[in-house]
Amino acid sequence: MQEKKTYHFGEKIRAVREKQHLTLRTVAQQAGVSESLVSQIERNRVSPAIDTLLSLANVLDINLEYLFEEYNRRRPVMIIRSGERRSIHDDDITYEEVTQPTEKEGEHSIESYLITIPVGSETHKGQYGHLGRECGIIIEGKARLKYESNEYELGTGDSVSFSASAPHTIENVGDSPLKALWIVSPAQRFI
Q1: Which 3-state string (H, E, C) describes 175-188?
Q2: Neighbour tally for 109: CB within 10 Å
Q3: 3-state percent breakdown (helix, strand, coil) of the chain, nearest 5
Q4: pTM of the prediction?
Q5: What are phi and psi of 92, to 5 degrees?
Q6: By the 8 A CB rule, do 88 and 191 touch?
Q7: I need a labelling partner for 188 at 20 to 30 A (CA). Which of 25, 40, 136, 176 fits?
């Protein structure tokens, strides 16, 4: 069960009010609330209703991003348990999702996969290129990265990164299944 998080605005509201040399009474009257309520909000004794918070922010000329920056830093940790990964098969290649991108991350989003490529097979997803960057590490096996008209041999433990805008594929050139951890940014929402 996820623990409920409480966000405190009081210290910030009080600091701005005091910096502007405004009394509790002045702010309360301009915001249309009681002086007692402003005092309780500043001491984090009560969580203000959104309309009250907006009124106080307006009276004090506070940017809402400033009030909510603590909330933005406390995003929940996302965990995908080993047996609960989503996966897809593209021909005989398996992609297991390691991270799930979220819409609000936008251009900073990432997605990552454990990729298993059988002997003699190669990926198809990047053959035309796409926006962003990719990086990966070979966990087991031997790979050939085909990037534009170049080819790069990669073995266990080797890592690679590149602009994803050029055509690229990964081929298993070993004699056992190729396993790699692959990261794409921004996320392409592959799964």
Answers
A1: CCCEEEEEEEECCC
A2: 19
A3: 30, 30, 40
A4: 0.59
A5: -100, 10
A6: yes
A7: 176
